[in-house]
Amino acid sequence: MKNIIKAGASILFGLALYFSFCCPAAAAELYFEPQNRTIQQCENFTVEVWLDTQGENINAVEASLLFSQGKIELADISQGGSLLDLWLVEPSFSNQTGEINFSGGIPNGFQGKGKILSLAFSPVPAEADIITAQIIFQNGSKVLLNDGYGTEASLTFKTADFVITAAAKDLPVIISQTHPNQSFWYADKKPLFSWEAAQGADYSYQLIGSDKKIVASGEKIKTKEENIALDFDLSGESDGVFYFSLRQKLPGQEWSQEAAHFRIMADTVPPEDFFPQIGKDEFISEGKYFVSFAAKDKTSGVDYYEVSEIDDWGIFDFININKKNLVWRKASSPYLLADQSLKSKILIKAVDKAGNERIAKVVPPNKTVYWQAGVLLLILVILVGAIVVFKKKKIKVKK
Predict the structure, then answer these.
(1) Domain total of the chain
(2) CB 165 within 8 A of CB 41
(3) pLDDT tens across 288-347, in order?
(4) Rounded to two decimals, what is the model's pTM?
(5) Which residues pair with 32 in a beta bridge?
(6) 118, containing H or E segment
């Protein structure tokens, strides 16, 4: 019997050893999209930071990134569409050191693949024909399990590698009157592109979304004009990043192998609805009243918040808030309220990077009763008036 038990134990140990080598535990992965690409000196490009949890349940990400300083420059960081709901450390960067840092959480946890950030880069002008650049995750970057203990998950990293080539010669320089800065977000989905044309040249173009979908294209625009302008209506397309590419065919020559490029970033949708809360805590602002808030924006990300406290109070004030001459102050959460008596209305404005706004309203606790009483009184007045009118009409009919 003992021999059987020993044999069984040996088999179990062998199986456990086998599976420990053959089926290692999956590790969460931080990576970039795209992971490699060839770009031109004059071309702006976007890189996204992604997380693949590999089946783990994750509730926090803390990362430090390093990019090739002096070869590429970061123009903008967008939190739009991020899987992170709360930012413990807002994304920040330095082109002097080539560093990017952020820390954020997902209160209810997350499993699967999700985007964390979008990074808008531009190559630094250089004399060399070919330059290589890289973006990496630095040591110390980590993700935490949603297990209630803040346990670090096993984690792997992937780098992003780029080859930067000299800009193609003799290609036209593209400009946009509607979206002049390729690193800015605009609340406009009707871009206009123009360029100075070579005499007798043909041109072909493509307008491509960030998902690589061709949303517009045309071929062989022969012209004798000095300038060509093309406008597009992208109202039927999702907000995001678009790339306009242009090839040229000079008289007696083949089509250019390289293309001129121009990037636009469009966001026409305001931040999502959000619900600020009034709070009071002895460890925050010496126990004074504050309002906390956090909004999300799917595309460009929330740029900043503003707060307005309104002294006067009226039943219809919330309906006409946009018609008032309100005083707005830049703010961050938590925001210490100026009116500690809580007699004022509080408005929180979230503004995304394209300038779209969403306003949330907060009714202070000691105003809720008066607000409800005012509404009930108004309804009562309307009902009484309706009854009086009805009775008068009834009396006239009887006569």
Answers:
(1) 3
(2) yes
(3) 999 999 999 989 999 999 999 987 555 545 545 554 578 899 999 999 999 998 888 899
(4) 0.75
(5) 49
(6) strand 113-123
